[in-house]
Amino acid sequence: MKEKLIEIIKEAGTILKDGYFSNKEVNFKAKKDLVTKYDVAVENFLKDKFTNEFKDFNVIAEESDNSNIEFNDSIIVDPIDGTTNFVNQVPHTCISVGVYKGKKPYIGIVYNPILDELYEAQIGQGAFLNGKKLEVSKENNFEKSLVATGFPYSNSTNQDDLNDVIEKIRTILPQCQDIRRLGSAAIDLCFIARGTYEAYYEMNLKAWDVSAGIIILQEAGGKFTSLDGSNYKLFEDKYIVASNGLVHDELIKLLN
Ligand code: IPD
Ligand code: CA
Ligand code: CA
Q: Which of 205, 208, 211 to mutate for ligand 1's pocket (most ligand atoms within 8 Å of CB)?
């Protein structure tokens, strides 16, 4: 299944790449939440192919009405993660596809067609970037850790969320090496998997933002939990906290 998925996702990557280099009209789902015709085009392409090819799975995808779709044997799709980057030609944008069997992680694929970087993992078989095996960093000192985060779209409308973002940065920033905000949750998780970041946290993400990245991270030896350190629940938890495993406890302590 993984090879077929990769073939389809690479094909969809050409739609994303064409859009990235063209002038595009931007629509607003909310004040800060953008969508373009390319998000929809990539999603429709993937949904068509996946429904034909993988008949035992349903597809849950960001730009679709998912109200009658039950999460079980599911392919969870973010057609363009990092849409603001995509619109502004910041080259950190990707297609994210996570496959779950009986709600359990199975395959994760994150493809950035701009940099031609394909991250892939299947449970029990390791994680790879363009065929090269991935491993999380061995840094165990939080002071030397590069930490990533993201800002929820609610920051302009929800004062509690904004305060929470600022409070957490106030605590974390003086204690770590530095903080990055790259603009794609899926790639952020892959950047821990490849050893670039030590850790990452973010609030208000949706299942399609992380469904693939957490599988890739897990297979590279990393860890992801909810804010209190318990098992992360896709579709349920407000916060995700991810790391190389070695600085996880320290990050959880500081975030709380
Ligand atoms: C967004 C990106 C971003 C994160 C946002 C997500 P989108 O996804 O992953 O990094 O901070 O919260 O919603 O809207 O570009 O698919
Ligand atoms: Ca997303
Ligand atoms: Ca998206």
A: 205
